[in-house]
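Thread amino acids onto this structure.
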């Protein structure tokens, strides 16, 4: 089955839920970045969370989830778009994460203190940026805490990645449910009960549940209105043009140093490991662009200071 995300709202408007299966996306991240089992679980949960958050965006908007904790994994970055494209990386992709009772103890490789940062590019001048402290290191609870602390939305988030004995990704996915204004205490209690009775997401997925069935389980007792489904896949947005832009943005001084010290460079995209080669001549051209841009900025600054 292809990776898929489905969302619904309770007909009375009191709850919103979205569920996703991301097994193929996470397996493709594992292969691309040669992830250790612990890193697969961490990045898999983070990108599933990013997809769930992206479900409320539209068009060209995108969301980035960045998790930084103490411990071996370092930093985890996952980005997703409402069109179902996602990408991500782990700072230390080969980090060993402790296993006990056959379960990967993610919190021990990502333990607090740390931060969860969510950056939403909504096509405005400045992206929206919210930060919350890392509370558990298991990512699902951390995202729910983020949504409460930073966006004041009471939510439950369940995320999971199942690693097969051959270390491939056997199942990945999760769900997000949000309480909307107007929900009564009884209704909230019922949804909490639904969630408590549910097996973990990986178990639901491995026993053949679809995202739609997961949403139905979470919001059992409510009549639902379906808001659409979205196929999910890995896709990186990098290109030589974008990397060139980033080099120009380094500025004149840094580029001069680069040309002087390295002559030519090979730049690897952190998100997909694709390499981009820049010859000395190409770097010289970028330097020219940086110089020109620097001049334009100076003139603008001058104008500003005169005005
Ligand atoms: Zn890339």
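Threaded sequence (307 positions):
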């Amino acid at each position: 089955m292809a990776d898929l995300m489905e969302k619904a709202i309770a007909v009375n408007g009191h709850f919103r839920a979205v569920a996703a299966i991301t097994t193929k996306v996470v397996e493709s991240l594992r292969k691309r970045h040669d992830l250790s089992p612990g890193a697969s679980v961490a990045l898999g949960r983070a990108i599933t969370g990013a997809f769930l958050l992206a479900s409320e965006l539209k068009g060209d908007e995108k969301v980035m989830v960045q998790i930084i904790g103490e411990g071996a994994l370092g930093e985890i970055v996952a980005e997703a778009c409402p069109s179902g494209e996602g990408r991500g990386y782990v700072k230390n992709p080969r980090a060993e994460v402790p296993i006990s009772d056959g379960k990967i103890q993610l919190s021990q490789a990502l333990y607090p203190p740390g931060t969860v940062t969510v950056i939403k590019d909504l096509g405005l001048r400045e992206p929206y940026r919210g930060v919350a402290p890392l509370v558990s290191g298991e990512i699902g609870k951390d995202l729910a805490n983020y949504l409460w602390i930073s966006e004041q939305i009471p939510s439950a988030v369940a995320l999971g990645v199942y690693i097969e004995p051959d270390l491939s990704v056997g199942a990945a996915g999760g769900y997000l449910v949000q309480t909307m204004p107007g929900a009564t205490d009884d209704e909230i209690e019922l949804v909490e009960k639904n969630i408590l009775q549910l097996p973990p997401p990986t178990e639901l997925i491995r026993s053949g549940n679809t995202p739609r069935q997961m949403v139905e389980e979470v919001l059992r007792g409510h009549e639902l209105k379906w808001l659409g489904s979205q196929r999910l896949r890995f896709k990186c947005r990098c290109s030589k043009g974008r990397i060139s832009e980033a080099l120009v943005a380094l500025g004149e001084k840094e580029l001069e140093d680069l040309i002087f010290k390295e002559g030519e460079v090979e730049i690897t995209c952190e998100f997909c490991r694709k390499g981009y080669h820049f010859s000395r001549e190409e770097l010289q051209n970028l330097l020219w662009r940086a110089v020109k841009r620097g001049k334009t900025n100076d003139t603008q600054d001058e104008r500003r200071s005169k005005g």
